[in-house]
Amino acid sequence: xxxxxxxxxxxxxxxxxxxxAAAPLAGAPSLVASALAAPASPVPVSLPVGQxxxxxxxxxxxxxxxxxxxxxxxxxxxxxxxxxxxxYWEMTVRDRKGAEQTVNVAPCTTAEEREDLLFYASTLxxxxxxxxxxxxxxxxxxxxxxxxxxxxxxVAPPPTTTAATTPPPSKTTTTQGAGAGAVAVDPGAxxxxxxVTTGAKAPPRTTGATPTSEGTGTTAAKAPARTSxxxxxxxxxxxxxxxxxxxxxxxxxxxxxxxxxxxxxGPWISAGGGIGLRAAAGPAGDLRLxxxxxxxxxLRVGGGLGVxxxxxxxxxxxxxxxxxxDLIVEGAWSITRSKxxxxxxxxxxxxxxxFADAGTPLLTATVPILGGEVGVDIPLGATALHLAPSxxxxxxxxxxxxxxxxxxxxxxxxxIRAGVVLVYRPG
Length: 427
What we know:
This protein is mainly beta.
């Protein structure tokens, strides 16, 4: 059967229109699927210094997180920052609405602890359901005690009398709490109001962040509640008294001596005495007279005269003695800038050694000398006087031979002199 030409034409035009209209609809499911399949960009997480990225990669990817390429929060959008504070980690979270929270958590050392920490971070970001307690150990912020803290007024001990012996109405004593934790409160003694528990168990702590008292915008999460089975009393929950005297220096801090006021360049003079010791010779008294100039408050130079009394020479004879006179130039450097200053010194010069037999001079020899000194400079109050105990060790740079009827022996070149001098430094 043959259709009219007009009918065939209309049928062909209808098929073409249906194909054109259906073409966009045929691609719509693929567009919707591709839109649904496009993943949201992961939230950047800034790890603490020293953490290995590979230890966190799997845990981050499973919660839609990724390691941040820069330290700190991103310029915009959500993010997580972990900062190592030695004893704890500080975690700052910015959710998709722009709200920021800061909590202190325990450092993570195992994969399980990292999973718990990232789950807690996802909770604060709004990517996971709220939990009754944080899965990680929350560390409270450190408490800083300053000398400005004043101690609360003392609390009177629990009354030992019965209720029949109450004071007059003008000064009534009431008992708050119950049992052994009861505390007597005198309304007329103090106007400070302190929290008192009524014996009910403390409510469980939530994971919501609590703003700090400093008002800086940072928040710290409360620690999870620990149930011990005991009911806290008013005395147990009362804050402990803190006085400025109880504040101790931080670990590792050094206690230094008070610094001495610098007096600048100026003259100095000292005099004193002590004892001189030399091997194969008897001890001798030592008298010293020195003077010079302070180039700086720590460096001084000068010269001196040292005289030692006659000392016996048993190896040269029973009646033979030796006397010593030293002429030196010297310098000293203070090691510290405190009031009591240890110092190191050096000197060189000429030594005169005189020998006698039963008081009759035998000979006199001169030798070059070189030595060092260590001592302590101690100021005497606010005066210009200083006390300086010191020890000098010096040596003769040329040997001296002692002869007698039985033979010859060498005089020991090393001498030790210990004593105390009084130093006057005006200005």
